[in-house]
Specification:
The structure is a single chain. The protein is 21% helix and 31% strand. It is globular. The strands form eleven sheets. Strands 17-43-44-37-40 form a five-stranded antiparallel beta sheet, with no helix packed on it. The protein is α+β, with helices and mostly antiparallel strands and 1000 residues long.
């Protein structure tokens, strides 16, 4: 029998009904004379149920004619009365026939009558299961056991009777019985794990709690504000998929024509190219005509601009209608005359979709033709229109610039914000300015020695030198400053020499303005000859002074160079996508091609729920200096882009970043000041991909602010193709960055400042494109705030170090087990191997490398089969305290109240104290090593040097193999010959002095 499944997820902002600003809501669902209800959430106006209600569908053919009534009530405990909180009616015609087609939708609650006072919304997922063999997953109630879906209503009614009969003295016992864990349809696994809590960097294990692990976020049904410290959470792993893309289908049959667009599913569109018209009749009394064209296909209508008083207009507009949404077999091209009242009909041309030709790239574009206009009765009238109509795919070159039917609600002015586009970052290079000295400065007070410094400004970048150590009119600085310059070298460098006459008062002694191209280009570390420049007086009458011949002026000695041998970092070095130098002739040859197909997304959160809309999602991908932006799919939680892009690869040890955003610039000027919302991003390192293999996975989208939320999943197809194997293998022996970074390195502090300036230049340049790539998207992709303090990230890095040290500790435990004879067979084999290697030392290195070879071959079976993704567990995002995340995303300087800042400061001191202790212990061990021969402890040093002399004599006399074998046998001796007390060398080392007693 067919089933109707209604998943009641959560509700928000319900109307309080108990007089105390709260409510106790439950949901009642009525379908085809079947009624079921959820549990009651006491004192909660933002409840989360996450329950499935399953109904029988007697006649699946009659499902479109039925209605699902969802009513939210307030449960007045102890009474038989319930308050109405809102209702939702869902037509059966909108119910999908499978779970995969269903999506979580938020419905605003409707009033029952005119005088109802209702507010809030409810999240539901409704779908039908037509498979007769379908059976919903059993639902588990604490204290009840496993219950089949058909008994769910009986259990609910029984629970309601118990709630009414029990008196107030049994509240606690009743609440314990009332807790339920609901399982969604699909495979669920259970495991027992302690909830992690933190104290500094350490873990404190708590009482085991039963939690549910799920592989699909769509089956979770948690509220959008779900945090990871609660049970019943989704996993954040990858989900491998097999969509019907040509790269996976082997190019069989019809897929053979899709070899150039083979990583995405083909999406078919009806294209209508409205080129121009001629010989149009006059419609107004004045004999003029203001023509425009309407392209109508069912309920979709595309309109061109109207052209005033033009009987031979030219539009050049292309319209694209998705074949999946075609609502008619006839497409009409109607030409009208714009008028103040009702627009006049001029003529029409109609096409039957069955007669429309199919174009398959790389065929040439379809040539437009002249068509005679017809009236409403099909009679030819005066005038012709030039059109081209064809069926194509998203691989058509007309696709990016076409007007799409799914964007019919967007204003013409904002239509460009929905289109896909390719961008390129500006070419950047480092500008190095060496300020050497100045001569013949003229201060206003001739009797004092000026305290001079130099201020340099390039665009928004400002740097100031240190004051000159010699206070005179001929100061010397000898200081280098670096800036980031873009490819537009017409920017001007403003150099100002100033005298600090008072703590807050400066006097300008001279100004120099130079274009960036005046600097000398260099590609290596060889010095460029400095030059003397005339300083101009700071005056408002500069033009008059320029006309006069310069007889005397102050001078400044500078060395200006454009260092093209560096790579200008605009990303964090840990996941940079480009490592090429600025100079074109220094760049490495290409080693391959990266192809990425952005297929779709699912289970996105409704980012515009307050406006009654879902999400207007688009994707941004960045690799090297090429950025791409997909088209915006409007008002859906499961967008399908199916767009494919290609990048040249110059280094495999680079990272591509893909971000998903909600477009907030679609509905006019009121949103001009708004920002596109982050949905999540994915990073993939190319070196982790196998060549010529197609990876198609769903990647989780995670957002941290204000708490960790899984905002959906994005489906990506990746393929890395190597075209130069020798060059790629050779790159593993080359340094990551260009030679200049090593021959003349830049300090870490300056590199961070320059990276920030480079990001600002890139963001400013791309935001001036059309359509603009917004600054908020660029900053999110480039991690502009990565350098800020984060307690969560510090914990993550600490645990990364501990996981690395765990390998060393595992080797130590293995050696200890051998020495303690835990496995006598293994210990005997180690004895034999040790004696062989000592007797034949030339076998040590070959044996070591042979072992490494076998270990690598053994680990091949366990190699990763999936590309890397954002790991919430590794990032400690799933366990971070909300206050830690609030501190991480706080502004700089802070905008939080002083009491909260003081608490955070105390916490930081506690964590820093632990780090300080660990650093002090490491320093102590190193200082003890130094103290062995430094005579800090004269008795210890005397003992050690006498011991060293004795051992030197013994080793001169005794063969090395004998000493090594005796020492090894001593280390591997049986436990019965061992003492529980620490060894003599250990005791000697622990008694050595360190400098810790000298610290204040």
């Amino acid at each position: 029998m067919s089933k109707l499944v209604v998943e009641v997820l959560d509700a928000s902002d319900l109307m309080p009904k108990d007089g105390n600003g709260s409510a106790s809501p439950f949901v009642e669902v009525d379908f085809d004379h079947q009624r079921q209800r959820t549990q009651t959430k006491y004192k909660d106006i933002n409840p989360s149920w996450s329950e499935q209600l399953v109904f029988n569908v007697a006649d699946p053919k009659n499902l479109p004619n039925t209605t699902v009534d969802v009513v939210v009530y307030n449960d007045q405990k102890g009474n038989h009365h319930k308050n109405f909180l809102g209702r939702v009616r869902i037509s059966g015609i909108s119910v999908p026939l499978s779970e995969s087609e269903a999506a979580i939708q938020r419905y605003p609650l409707e009033k029952r009558g005119i005088f109802s006072n209702i507010r809030g919304d409810i999240a539901l997922k409704v779908y039908a299961i037509c498979d007769p063999s379908y059976s919903a997953a059993p639902m588990h109630f604490e204290g009840v056991g496993v219950v089949e879906p058909q008994k769910l209503e009986e259990i609910h009614n029984k629970k309601l009777e118990e709630e009414v009969k029990n008196d107030a003295g049994k509240k606690k016992k009743k609440k314990e019985k009332e807790r339920r864990t609901f399982h969604s349809i699909g495979t669920t696994n259970f495991h027992t794990a302690p909830p992690p809590s933190f104290s500094g960097f350490g873990f404190e294990s708590g009482k085991p709690v039963t939690t549910e692990r799920r592989s699909d976020f769509a089956r979770v049904g948690q509220s959008t504000a779900m945090h990871m410290q609660f049970p019943g959470q989704p996993e954040f792993g990858l989900v491998e998929t097999s969509p019907p893309v040509a790269a996976r289908m082997g190019y069989r049959g019809r897929y053979k024509t899709a070899t150039t667009y083979d990583l995405v599913e083909q999406m078919h569109y009806l294209y209508v190219n409205v080129v121009k018209a001629r010989d149009l009749p006059s419609m107004d009394l004045t004999g003029s005509l203001d023509p425009y064209v309407e392209v109508k296909l069912g309920n979709y209508k595309g309109v061109t601009k109207y052209l005033e008083k033009n009987q031979n207009p030219v539009w050049g507009r292309i319209f694209a209608f998705s074949r999946e949404r075609l609502q008619s077999n006839l497409v009409e091209v109607v030409l009208k005359d714009k008028d103040f009242g009702k627009d006049d009909f001029v003529g029409r041309v109609a096409f039957d979709l069955s007669e429309v030709p199919v174009r398959v790239p790389p065929d040439s574009p379809l040539a437009p033709e002249w068509y005679k206009l017809e009236d409403k009765n099909g009679v030819k009238v005066k005038g012709e229109v030039m059109l081209a109509v064809w069926m194509g795919t998203q691989a058509d070159e007309s696709f990016p610039d076409a007007w799409h039917s799914d964007a019919h609600s967007v204003n013409v002015e904002n239509l460009s914000n929905t289109r896909s586009q390719v961008y390129f970052s500006p070419k950047l290079c480092y500008l190095r300015i060496h300020i050497i000295e100045a001569q013949d400065l003229v201060p206003s007070d001739r009797g004092r020695n000026p305290n001079t410094f130099v201020r340099i400004q390039l665009g928004n970048q400002l740097r100031i030198t240190r004051p000159s150590p010699n206070h005179s009119v001929n100061p010397i600085w000898n200081e280098e400053l670096m800036f980031v310059a873009s490819e537009q070298m017409d920017d001007r460098i403003i150099i100002t020499v100033e005298d600090r006459t008072a703590p807050d008062k400066h006097e300008i002694l001279g100004v120099l303005a130079l274009p960036v191209y005046a600097a000398t280009q260099r590609h290596d570390h060889r010095l460029v000859d400095p030059k003397w420049f005339n300083l101009e007086k700071h005056s408002s009458a500069k033009e008059d002074e320029e006309k006069k011949e310069v007889r005397f002026s102050s001078k400044i000695h500078l060395r200006l160079t454009l260092d093209l041998g560096y790579h200008v970092l605009d990303e964090a070095t840990h996941y940079s996508s480009d490592l090429q130098p600025s100079a074109k002739h220094l760049k490495k040859p290409s080693i391959g091609v990266l192809e990425i197909g952005i297929l779709s997304a699912r289970n996105l959160l409704p980012m515009k729920a307050s406006d009654g809309r879902a999400t207007d999602a688009y994707c941004v991908a960045k690799y090297a200096n090429k950025w791409i932006r997909t088209r915006t799919i409007l008002d859906t939680l499961a967008p399908r882009w199916n767009e494919q892009y290609t990048w040249e690869v110059y280094d495999p040890c680079t990272v591509i970043t893909i971000g998903v955003f909600d477009n907030c610039h679609l509905n006019g000027s009121k949103e001009d000041q708004s920002k596109d919302k982050r949905i999540g991003k994915v990073r993939i390192r190319l070196s982790t991909l196998e060549t010529d293999r197609v990876y198609i996975h769903y990647y989780p989208l995670l957002v941290l602010q204000p708490g960790l939320k899984k905002t959906g999943e994005i489906q990506l197809a990746l393929r890395f193709t190597c075209t130069a194997w020798v060059n790629m293998v050779n790159l593993y022996s080359k340094p990551l960055l260009p030679k200049m970074h090593y021959s003349q390195p830049i300090s870490v502090h300056h590199l961070d400042w320059l990276r920030h300036q480079a990001m600002q230049i890139v963001a400013a340049r791309l935001s001036r494109s059309e359509p603009p790539l917004r600054r908020e998207a660029i900053e999110y992709m480039l991690d502009v705030d990565y350098h800020m303090w984060s307690l969560r990230r510090s914990k993550a890095n600490f645990n990364r170090i501990m996981s690395l040290l765990s390998g060393v500790m595992a080797i130590g435990r293995w050696l200890n087990d051998i020495c303690m004879w835990r496995n006598p067979v293994t210990t005997c084999l180690v004895h034999i191997l040790f004696v062989i290697l000592v007797c034949y030392p030339e076998l040590i290195l070959p044996t070591t490398f042979l072992y490494l070879f076998f270990i690598g071959i053994w680990n091949y079976r366990f190699r990763p089969r999936q590309p890397p993704h954002m790991d919430a567990k590794l990032s400690h995002a799933d366990r971070a305290h909300p206050d830690e995340l609030d501190e991480e995303f706080d502004t700089f300087p802070t905008s939080r109240p002083p009491d909260l800042v003081r608490i955070r400061y105390d916490r930081l001191r506690s964590v820093a104290g632990r780090i300080q202790t660990v650093a002090g212990d490491l320093a102590t061990q190193g200082e003890r090593l130094q103290a062995i021969l430094s005579w800090r402890d004269p008795r210890a040093t005397a003992i050690f040097i006498i011991f060293s002399l004795i051992w030197a004599i013994i080793l001169y006399v005794t063969p090395f193999q004998v000493v090594a074998i005796l020492l090894g046998i001593y280390m591997l001796r049986h436990p019965r010959f061992r003492s529980r007390m620490p060894s003599v060398p250990f005791n000697f080392f622990k008694r050595l002095p360190a400098k810790s007693d000298m610290l204040l």
